[in-house]
Amino acid sequence: MPVRATKRGTARTTLDRDCDVLVCGASFAGLTVARELERSGARVMLIDRYEVGERQTSACAVPTEWLELLGLESSVRQTFDELVVHTSRSTTRWPLPISFSTFDYRELCGLLRAAASSSEFETATVEGVQTGQTHTVRTDRGDVRAPYVIDALGWRRVLSSSGQPIQPPDARLSRGLEVHPPGTGDDLECWIDPHYIRAGYSWSFPAGDEVRVGVGSFEPRDHVKDGTVALARDLSRDPVGYQGNWIPHQLRPATENGIFFVGDSAGHCLPLTAEGIRPAFYFALALGRELRAALAGAITREQALTRYRAFNRKHALKYSCMLGAQHLAGRTTGSAPMRWLVGALRARRVSHWTFDHYYQIMPRPSAIGSDSPELVGTGARGRLGAPA
Ligand SMILES: Cc1cc2nc3c(=O)[nH]c(=O)nc-3n(C[C@H](O)[C@H](O)[C@H](O)COP(=O)(O)OP(=O)(O)OC[C@H]3O[C@@H](n4cnc5c(N)ncnc54)[C@H](O)[C@@H]3O)c2cc1C
């Protein structure tokens, strides 16, 4: 078992604190929200059970331009202009209209944290919340009070009290497991092959001096370890450095009892592809915009909640379509129509058309705020978006 860098022994003092904004969870979504509140003048506190960047939660592949937009390009390990897709019978190269990059998780989190340096950070495990005009968040080190509380805690949605199913196998969750053997590779690769997983896909993402090899299942009851080990062995990689998690594959309510939810806690990871980093950035930027407006007194907390909820809902149809595509893909993984589709995407026009439509579910930041008074805000590199 790896020893995680959480506060231990005498360093683990009692937390009894008041702040303006409490961001629970310091990964992609939480750190981006904190970054967006830099220079807002608010007392922002970040809490995570581990030190920032301590525990990788992903294979860490993302559209390159999003890393550039957020000033995170120095964390990039490798960049790819095509996706190599394998079925049981063929290998096809899909040309991508935008490049994807793998990055170093610790470095990326460090960069986001540096861009939110005026916020306070504490390691503590969040256990629950008592909601009110000022919310009281219970942690294993004591209570923290804030009028604005953000749950960026990942799939467990710890601050929810709705009673909706969140735990597997009742909740709508996919699961992913990968290994991180040392090694190098040239291609971003994906397998749509029931030999590794019945309903889902497998991948090999090189990232400098390591390769992230894993399996994702759309069906939470299906195990992913055997497939992961089999793929690693087929690629002559050692199955070492395990990392896995559940992945919500359905949009969840973005607010509940005055709490904001973002990233996996809000079900923002896209169904079918399990791409969750760009959505975490995207919705965190949108949430940051509403919080800044509320903290500046331009809108009330209730209005910020309403507007963020509406922004989330605007994406519901697209998420439903992606979920429909996931159901279909899950039933046809090894079939002839699936193999035909994989082959059809080798044509540049078909591939670009498909990816462009997919990409537009979450357009570049300059388009995020087209129906809002303020666009994505200030960060390490200044204003990100041009007025729409
Ligand atoms: C194996 C695998 C590979 C993936 N690969 C990719 C990929 O290549 N590209 C992509 O776009 N997406 C990928 N995803 C999906 C992506 O990882 C998630 O969608 C993304 O991490 C969501 O970000 P988040 O900030 O919402 O939550 P998380 O990254 O899960 O972060 C949640 C944070 O909350 C903290 N936390 C949790 N509970 C508590 C608590 N009770 N108290 C205090 N802190 C707590 C955690 O320590 C963590 O820091 C992958 C997922 C898996 C499982």
Helical fraction equals 25-40%
Mean pLDDT over the full residue set? 91
Summarize the main sheet: 8 strands, mixed
Net shape: globular
**CATH superfamily caption:** FAD/NAD(P)-binding domain
Query: Might you state the CATH topology name?
Result: FAD/NAD(P)-binding domain
Distance between the termini: 49 Å
Radius of gyration: 20 Å
The oligomerization state is single chain
| Strand percent estimate | 25-35%
The CATH architecture designation is 3-Layer(bba) Sandwich
Provide a count of the helices.
Answer: 9
CATH class: Alpha Beta
What does this structure look like?
The protein is α/β, with parallel strands linked by helices and 388 residues long. The chain has one domain: FAD/NAD(P)-binding domain. Helix content is 27%, strand content 26%. The chain is built from nine helices and 18 strands. The strands form three sheets. An eight-stranded mixed sheet has the order 4-6-5-13-14-15-12-16. A hairpin with a 4-residue loop joins strand 5 and strand 6. The C terminus is likely disordered. Flavin-adenine dinucleotide binds next to helix 1, strand 3, strand 4, strand 12 and strand 16.
Helix-strand layout with pairing:
Layout: E1 17-18, E2 21-24, H1 28-36, E3 44-48, E4 61-63, H2 64-69, E5 76-86, E6 91-103, H3 105-114, E7 120-123, E8 126-130, E9 135-139, E10 142-146, E11 148-151, E12 173-179, E13 188-191, E14 200-207, E15 210-217, H4 225-234, E16 243-248, E17 255-256, E18 259-261, H5 277-295, H6 301-313, H7 316-331, H8 336-344, H9 348-359
Helix pairs in contact: 1-3, 1-5, 5-6
The structure holds flavin-adenine dinucleotide.
